[in-house]
Amino acid sequence: MAAIDGLGINRLWQRIAGLLGSLLAMGGAKAIELPENRAEALYHIYKGGGVTADGPALLVRKSLADKVSLSGSYYVDAVSNASIDVVTTASPFKEKRTSYDFNVDYAHRDSMMSMGVYRSKEPDYEADSVSIDVAQEVYGNMTTVALGFTRGVDKVGKRGEPSFADKAKHWQYRLGLTQVLTPTMLASANLEVVSDSGYLGNPYRAARVFGATVPERMPRTRTSRAMKFRIVADLGDRNAARAEYRYFWDTWDIKAHTLEGGYSRYVGTDWLADGFVRLYSQGEALFYSDNATSETTYLTRNRQLGAFRSFGLGGKLSYTARRVPGQYELKIVGSVERIRFNYSNFTDIRDGSAYRFNANLLQLYATATF
Protein backbone atom coordinates (compact mmCIF):
# COMPACT_ATOMS: atom_id res chain seq x y z
CA MET A 1 0.00 0.00 0.00
CA ALA A 2 1.52 3.30 -1.06
CA ALA A 3 2.22 5.91 1.60
CA ILE A 4 1.03 9.51 1.37
CA ASP A 5 4.19 11.63 1.41
CA GLY A 6 4.42 15.17 2.81
CA LEU A 7 3.74 16.78 -0.58
CA GLY A 8 0.69 14.57 -1.11
CA ILE A 9 -0.71 15.53 2.28
CA ASN A 10 -0.15 19.22 1.60
CA ARG A 11 -2.02 18.92 -1.71
CA LEU A 12 -4.86 17.12 0.06
CA TRP A 13 -4.92 19.92 2.63
CA GLN A 14 -5.06 22.57 -0.11
CA ARG A 15 -8.02 20.88 -1.79
CA ILE A 16 -9.87 20.57 1.50
CA ALA A 17 -9.11 24.21 2.37
CA GLY A 18 -10.50 25.27 -1.01
CA LEU A 19 -13.69 23.33 -0.31
CA LEU A 20 -14.07 24.97 3.09
CA GLY A 21 -13.46 28.38 1.57
CA SER A 22 -16.40 27.92 -0.79
CA LEU A 23 -18.59 26.74 2.08
CA LEU A 24 -17.68 29.77 4.19
CA ALA A 25 -19.28 31.97 1.56
CA MET A 26 -22.59 30.15 2.13
CA GLY A 27 -22.82 30.97 5.84
CA GLY A 28 -26.01 32.43 7.25
CA ALA A 29 -26.49 35.35 9.62
CA LYS A 30 -27.15 33.43 12.81
CA ALA A 31 -24.33 33.83 15.32
CA ILE A 32 -22.62 30.66 16.48
CA GLU A 33 -22.51 30.18 20.24
CA LEU A 34 -19.30 30.01 22.24
CA PRO A 35 -18.85 27.15 24.71
CA GLU A 36 -20.26 27.75 28.18
CA ASN A 37 -18.15 29.22 30.95
CA ARG A 38 -17.04 26.15 32.83
CA ALA A 39 -14.77 24.89 35.59
CA GLU A 40 -13.98 21.21 36.11
CA ALA A 41 -11.96 19.19 38.61
CA LEU A 42 -11.32 15.50 37.91
CA TYR A 43 -9.55 12.54 39.47
CA HIS A 44 -8.83 9.47 37.35
CA ILE A 45 -7.31 6.07 37.97
CA TYR A 46 -6.45 3.35 35.43
CA LYS A 47 -5.31 -0.09 36.51
CA GLY A 48 -4.59 -3.08 34.31
CA GLY A 49 -1.83 -5.22 32.86
CA GLY A 50 0.59 -4.27 35.63
CA VAL A 51 0.16 -0.53 35.03
CA THR A 52 -1.44 1.91 37.44
CA ALA A 53 -1.92 5.54 36.40
CA ASP A 54 -3.76 8.11 38.46
CA GLY A 55 -3.89 11.83 39.09
CA PRO A 56 -5.92 15.02 38.97
CA ALA A 57 -7.02 17.21 36.09
CA LEU A 58 -8.30 20.78 36.11
CA LEU A 59 -10.01 22.83 33.39
CA VAL A 60 -11.28 26.40 33.32
CA ARG A 61 -13.08 28.12 30.42
CA LYS A 62 -14.17 31.77 30.35
CA SER A 63 -15.79 33.87 27.62
CA LEU A 64 -14.94 37.48 26.90
CA ALA A 65 -17.37 39.92 25.24
CA ASP A 66 -19.40 37.09 23.63
CA LYS A 67 -16.73 36.75 20.94
CA VAL A 68 -13.74 35.06 22.56
CA SER A 69 -13.48 32.06 24.87
CA LEU A 70 -10.28 31.20 26.72
CA SER A 71 -9.59 27.81 28.27
CA GLY A 72 -6.71 26.14 30.04
CA SER A 73 -6.21 22.69 31.53
CA TYR A 74 -3.72 20.84 33.70
CA TYR A 75 -3.40 17.06 33.81
CA VAL A 76 -1.21 14.71 35.87
CA ASP A 77 -0.48 11.00 35.49
CA ALA A 78 1.48 9.27 38.26
CA VAL A 79 2.45 5.95 36.65
CA SER A 80 3.59 2.74 38.33
CA ASN A 81 4.73 0.48 35.51
CA ALA A 82 5.16 -3.23 35.96
CA SER A 83 3.66 -4.24 32.61
CA ILE A 84 4.61 -7.48 30.91
CA ASP A 85 7.14 -5.60 28.74
CA VAL A 86 8.81 -4.21 31.85
CA VAL A 87 8.84 -7.25 34.12
CA THR A 88 10.20 -9.54 31.38
CA THR A 89 13.01 -7.23 30.21
CA ALA A 90 13.62 -4.66 32.98
CA SER A 91 12.70 -3.55 36.49
CA PRO A 92 9.35 -1.96 37.41
CA PHE A 93 9.50 1.82 37.71
CA LYS A 94 7.49 4.88 38.70
CA GLU A 95 7.29 8.23 36.94
CA LYS A 96 5.04 11.26 36.60
CA ARG A 97 3.74 12.94 33.47
CA THR A 98 2.27 16.42 33.51
CA SER A 99 0.55 18.20 30.64
CA TYR A 100 -0.82 21.67 30.03
CA ASP A 101 -2.85 23.16 27.23
CA PHE A 102 -4.27 26.58 26.43
CA ASN A 103 -6.95 27.34 23.84
CA VAL A 104 -8.55 30.42 22.32
CA ASP A 105 -11.91 30.25 20.50
CA TYR A 106 -13.17 33.16 18.41
CA ALA A 107 -16.79 33.30 17.18
CA HIS A 108 -17.81 35.44 14.18
CA ARG A 109 -21.38 35.10 12.94
CA ASP A 110 -21.71 31.37 12.19
CA SER A 111 -17.98 30.58 12.21
CA MET A 112 -15.79 29.36 15.05
CA MET A 113 -11.99 29.64 14.88
CA SER A 114 -9.81 27.96 17.50
CA MET A 115 -6.10 27.92 18.31
CA GLY A 116 -4.40 25.82 20.96
CA VAL A 117 -1.00 24.94 22.36
CA TYR A 118 -0.16 21.79 24.29
CA ARG A 119 2.84 20.64 26.31
CA SER A 120 3.48 17.33 28.03
CA LYS A 121 6.55 16.41 30.05
CA GLU A 122 7.87 13.30 31.74
CA PRO A 123 11.42 12.35 32.79
CA ASP A 124 12.44 10.95 29.39
CA TYR A 125 9.86 12.41 26.99
CA GLU A 126 8.63 15.89 26.07
CA ALA A 127 5.82 16.66 23.63
CA ASP A 128 4.79 20.06 22.26
CA SER A 129 2.10 20.85 19.71
CA VAL A 130 0.05 23.68 18.24
CA SER A 131 -3.36 23.29 16.61
CA ILE A 132 -5.72 25.37 14.47
CA ASP A 133 -9.39 24.53 13.85
CA VAL A 134 -12.23 26.19 11.94
CA ALA A 135 -15.92 25.22 12.17
CA GLN A 136 -18.57 26.71 9.89
CA GLU A 137 -22.35 26.31 10.00
CA VAL A 138 -23.99 26.34 6.53
CA TYR A 139 -27.31 25.61 4.83
CA GLY A 140 -29.46 27.30 7.46
CA ASN A 141 -27.27 26.02 10.29
CA MET A 142 -28.30 22.45 9.55
CA THR A 143 -24.76 21.46 8.49
CA THR A 144 -21.44 22.07 10.23
CA VAL A 145 -18.11 21.69 8.42
CA ALA A 146 -14.95 21.48 10.53
CA LEU A 147 -11.33 21.64 9.42
CA GLY A 148 -8.27 21.28 11.65
CA PHE A 149 -4.49 20.92 11.70
CA THR A 150 -2.01 20.03 14.45
CA ARG A 151 1.78 20.19 14.35
CA GLY A 152 3.72 18.39 17.07
CA VAL A 153 7.36 17.80 17.99
CA ASP A 154 8.51 15.25 20.60
CA LYS A 155 11.89 14.96 22.31
CA VAL A 156 12.81 11.39 23.22
CA GLY A 157 15.34 10.47 25.89
CA LYS A 158 16.37 7.39 27.85
CA ARG A 159 16.84 7.04 31.58
CA GLY A 160 20.41 6.18 32.51
CA GLU A 161 21.79 7.18 29.08
CA PRO A 162 22.22 10.97 28.86
CA SER A 163 23.83 10.59 25.42
CA PHE A 164 20.62 9.17 23.91
CA ALA A 165 18.48 11.88 22.29
CA ASP A 166 16.13 11.83 19.33
CA LYS A 167 13.02 13.55 17.99
CA ALA A 168 9.69 12.71 16.43
CA LYS A 169 7.55 15.07 14.35
CA HIS A 170 3.81 14.79 13.76
CA TRP A 171 1.37 16.39 11.29
CA GLN A 172 -2.34 15.81 11.82
CA TYR A 173 -5.10 16.92 9.42
CA ARG A 174 -8.81 16.73 10.29
CA LEU A 175 -12.00 17.15 8.28
CA GLY A 176 -15.46 16.73 9.78
CA LEU A 177 -19.07 17.06 8.69
CA THR A 178 -22.08 17.12 11.03
CA GLN A 179 -25.62 17.04 9.62
CA VAL A 180 -29.01 17.48 11.25
CA LEU A 181 -31.07 14.72 9.62
CA THR A 182 -34.36 15.22 11.44
CA PRO A 183 -35.47 17.19 14.50
CA THR A 184 -34.46 14.17 16.59
CA MET A 185 -31.45 12.76 14.73
CA LEU A 186 -27.89 13.97 14.13
CA ALA A 187 -25.15 12.32 12.05
CA SER A 188 -21.44 13.06 11.64
CA ALA A 189 -18.49 11.84 9.57
CA ASN A 190 -14.85 12.60 10.31
CA LEU A 191 -11.60 11.97 8.46
CA GLU A 192 -8.16 12.18 10.07
CA VAL A 193 -4.77 11.85 8.40
CA VAL A 194 -1.60 11.69 10.52
CA SER A 195 1.98 11.73 9.23
CA ASP A 196 4.81 10.86 11.66
CA SER A 197 8.56 10.96 11.17
CA GLY A 198 11.60 10.50 13.36
CA TYR A 199 12.00 8.18 16.34
CA LEU A 200 8.75 6.21 16.53
CA GLY A 201 9.84 3.37 18.78
CA ASN A 202 10.60 2.81 22.45
CA PRO A 203 14.24 2.89 23.60
CA TYR A 204 13.47 0.38 26.36
CA ARG A 205 11.58 -2.21 24.34
CA ALA A 206 13.16 -5.44 23.10
CA ALA A 207 12.18 -7.87 20.33
CA ARG A 208 12.89 -11.61 20.07
CA VAL A 209 14.67 -13.62 17.36
CA PHE A 210 14.82 -17.41 17.92
CA GLY A 211 14.09 -16.71 21.59
CA ALA A 212 17.03 -14.29 21.98
CA THR A 213 16.42 -10.69 23.02
CA VAL A 214 17.45 -8.00 20.51
CA PRO A 215 16.82 -4.23 20.41
CA GLU A 216 13.60 -3.12 18.74
CA ARG A 217 14.06 -1.66 15.23
CA MET A 218 11.30 0.63 13.95
CA PRO A 219 10.69 2.56 10.71
CA ARG A 220 11.16 6.32 10.99
CA THR A 221 8.06 7.24 8.95
CA ARG A 222 4.40 6.38 9.27
CA THR A 223 1.17 7.68 7.75
CA SER A 224 -2.19 6.68 9.18
CA ARG A 225 -5.79 7.47 8.32
CA ALA A 226 -9.01 7.03 10.23
CA MET A 227 -12.66 7.51 9.30
CA LYS A 228 -15.41 7.70 11.91
CA PHE A 229 -19.17 7.71 11.43
CA ARG A 230 -21.57 8.56 14.24
CA ILE A 231 -25.33 8.89 14.65
CA VAL A 232 -27.21 10.22 17.69
CA ALA A 233 -30.97 9.96 18.12
CA ASP A 234 -33.44 11.43 20.59
CA LEU A 235 -35.80 8.58 21.46
CA GLY A 236 -38.28 10.76 23.29
CA ASP A 237 -39.27 10.70 26.95
CA ARG A 238 -35.76 12.05 27.81
CA ASN A 239 -33.95 9.05 26.27
CA ALA A 240 -31.19 9.08 23.67
CA ALA A 241 -29.04 6.52 21.87
CA ARG A 242 -25.88 6.66 19.78
CA ALA A 243 -23.93 4.34 17.49
CA GLU A 244 -20.52 4.84 15.90
CA TYR A 245 -18.01 3.01 13.75
CA ARG A 246 -14.33 3.84 13.17
CA TYR A 247 -11.96 2.34 10.61
CA PHE A 248 -8.18 2.84 10.88
CA TRP A 249 -5.42 1.89 8.45
CA ASP A 250 -1.78 2.89 8.03
CA THR A 251 1.40 2.33 6.01
CA TRP A 252 2.59 -0.28 8.52
CA ASP A 253 -0.32 -2.44 7.27
CA ILE A 254 -2.27 -2.16 10.51
CA LYS A 255 -6.04 -2.21 10.06
CA ALA A 256 -8.44 -1.70 12.96
CA HIS A 257 -12.19 -1.56 13.50
CA THR A 258 -14.03 0.03 16.43
CA LEU A 259 -17.77 -0.37 16.99
CA GLU A 260 -19.49 1.42 19.87
CA GLY A 261 -23.06 1.91 21.05
CA GLY A 262 -24.48 3.91 23.92
CA TYR A 263 -27.74 4.76 25.65
CA SER A 264 -28.63 7.72 27.91
CA ARG A 265 -31.67 8.27 30.11
CA TYR A 266 -32.73 10.93 32.59
CA VAL A 267 -34.00 9.66 35.93
CA GLY A 268 -36.10 12.34 37.55
CA THR A 269 -34.89 15.90 37.10
CA ASP A 270 -31.40 15.64 38.58
CA TRP A 271 -29.96 12.29 37.47
CA LEU A 272 -28.61 11.25 34.06
CA ALA A 273 -27.45 7.67 33.44
CA ASP A 274 -25.28 6.60 30.50
CA GLY A 275 -24.15 3.16 29.43
CA PHE A 276 -22.03 1.98 26.52
CA VAL A 277 -20.31 -1.02 24.97
CA ARG A 278 -17.23 -0.95 22.72
CA LEU A 279 -15.68 -3.62 20.48
CA TYR A 280 -12.20 -3.23 18.99
CA SER A 281 -10.30 -5.47 16.58
CA GLN A 282 -6.82 -4.91 15.11
CA GLY A 283 -4.46 -6.70 12.73
CA GLU A 284 -0.68 -6.78 13.15
CA ALA A 285 2.02 -4.58 11.59
CA LEU A 286 4.16 -5.92 8.73
CA PHE A 287 7.25 -6.12 10.92
CA TYR A 288 5.63 -7.40 14.12
CA SER A 289 6.71 -10.79 15.43
CA ASP A 290 6.24 -12.52 18.75
CA ASN A 291 9.40 -14.55 18.14
CA ALA A 292 11.00 -13.93 14.74
CA THR A 293 12.70 -16.73 12.83
CA SER A 294 15.00 -14.41 10.86
CA GLU A 295 16.66 -11.01 11.14
CA THR A 296 14.84 -8.25 9.23
CA THR A 297 15.41 -4.54 8.71
CA TYR A 298 12.54 -3.67 11.04
CA LEU A 299 11.39 -5.76 13.97
CA THR A 300 9.19 -5.15 17.00
CA ARG A 301 7.44 -7.11 19.72
CA ASN A 302 5.32 -4.16 20.81
CA ARG A 303 2.03 -5.88 21.56
CA GLN A 304 0.12 -2.71 20.62
CA LEU A 305 1.30 -3.31 17.04
CA GLY A 306 0.23 -6.95 17.12
CA ALA A 307 -3.17 -8.51 16.49
CA PHE A 308 -5.59 -8.21 19.39
CA ARG A 309 -9.18 -7.59 20.37
CA SER A 310 -10.71 -5.70 23.24
CA PHE A 311 -14.16 -5.45 24.74
CA GLY A 312 -15.20 -2.50 26.90
CA LEU A 313 -18.30 -2.02 29.02
CA GLY A 314 -18.90 1.21 30.90
CA GLY A 315 -21.34 3.52 32.55
CA LYS A 316 -21.62 7.07 33.80
CA LEU A 317 -23.91 8.69 36.37
CA SER A 318 -24.39 12.46 36.59
CA TYR A 319 -26.12 14.29 39.44
CA THR A 320 -27.12 17.94 39.28
CA ALA A 321 -26.35 19.07 42.82
CA ARG A 322 -27.37 22.70 42.39
CA ARG A 323 -28.99 24.68 39.61
CA VAL A 324 -29.92 28.35 39.33
CA PRO A 325 -31.29 28.94 35.80
CA GLY A 326 -29.41 31.66 33.96
CA GLN A 327 -26.67 31.82 36.61
CA TYR A 328 -24.88 28.54 37.34
CA GLU A 329 -25.18 24.77 37.53
CA LEU A 330 -23.10 22.27 39.53
CA LYS A 331 -22.85 18.59 38.59
CA ILE A 332 -21.11 15.62 40.20
CA VAL A 333 -20.16 12.87 37.76
CA GLY A 334 -18.76 9.38 38.15
CA SER A 335 -17.83 6.94 35.40
CA VAL A 336 -16.37 3.44 35.31
CA GLU A 337 -15.19 1.23 32.45
CA ARG A 338 -14.10 -2.40 32.39
CA ILE A 339 -11.94 -3.49 29.44
CA ARG A 340 -10.82 -6.98 28.40
CA PHE A 341 -7.75 -7.34 26.14
CA ASN A 342 -7.01 -10.57 24.24
CA TYR A 343 -3.78 -10.80 22.20
CA SER A 344 -3.69 -13.28 19.32
CA ASN A 345 0.07 -13.59 18.83
CA PHE A 346 1.79 -12.11 21.87
CA THR A 347 3.09 -14.71 24.31
CA ASP A 348 3.57 -14.28 28.03
CA ILE A 349 7.09 -15.70 28.13
CA ARG A 350 6.73 -16.43 31.84
CA ASP A 351 4.30 -19.30 31.18
CA GLY A 352 4.03 -19.56 27.38
CA SER A 353 0.33 -18.66 27.21
CA ALA A 354 -1.34 -16.09 24.96
CA TYR A 355 -1.35 -12.80 26.82
CA ARG A 356 -4.60 -11.29 28.07
CA PHE A 357 -5.65 -9.02 30.90
CA ASN A 358 -8.45 -6.91 32.34
CA ALA A 359 -8.26 -3.18 32.98
CA ASN A 360 -10.43 -0.76 34.93
CA LEU A 361 -10.82 2.99 34.44
CA LEU A 362 -12.50 5.17 37.07
CA GLN A 363 -13.20 8.90 36.79
CA LEU A 364 -14.76 11.18 39.37
CA TYR A 365 -15.26 14.85 38.68
CA ALA A 366 -17.23 17.97 39.48
CA THR A 367 -18.22 20.40 36.74
CA ALA A 368 -19.77 23.84 37.12
CA THR A 369 -21.14 26.19 34.46
CA PHE A 370 -21.42 29.87 35.26
Tell me what you see in this structure.
- With 370 residues, the chain is mainly beta.
- The protein has one domain: monomeric porin ompg (Porin), CATH 2.40.160.40.
- Helix content is 7%, strand content 65%.
- The chain has two helices and 18 strands.
- The longest helix is centred in the N-terminal third of the chain and has 19 residues, at 6-24.
- The chain is globular, with a radius of gyration of 23 Å.
- The model is unreliable at 1-9 and 11-29 (pLDDT under 50).
Keywords:
65% strand; Porin; 2 helices
**Beta strands, count:** 18
Tell me roughly what share of residues is in helical segments: under 10%
Query: Overall mean pLDDT score?
Result: 91
Q: What is the highest CATH level, the class? A: Mainly Beta
Instruction: Note the total helix count.
Output: 2
The largest sheet is:
16 strands, antiparallel, barrel
Structural class: mainly beta
* CATH architectural arrangement: Beta Barrel
Major β-sheet strand ordering: 1-2-3-4-5-6-7-8-9-12-13-14-15-16-17-18
Can you tell me the overall shape? globular
> What count of structural domains?
1
Helix and strand run: HEEEHEEEEEEEEEEEEEEE
Residue windows where pLDDT falls under 50 for at least 5 positions: 1-9, 11-29
**CATH-defined topology:** Porin
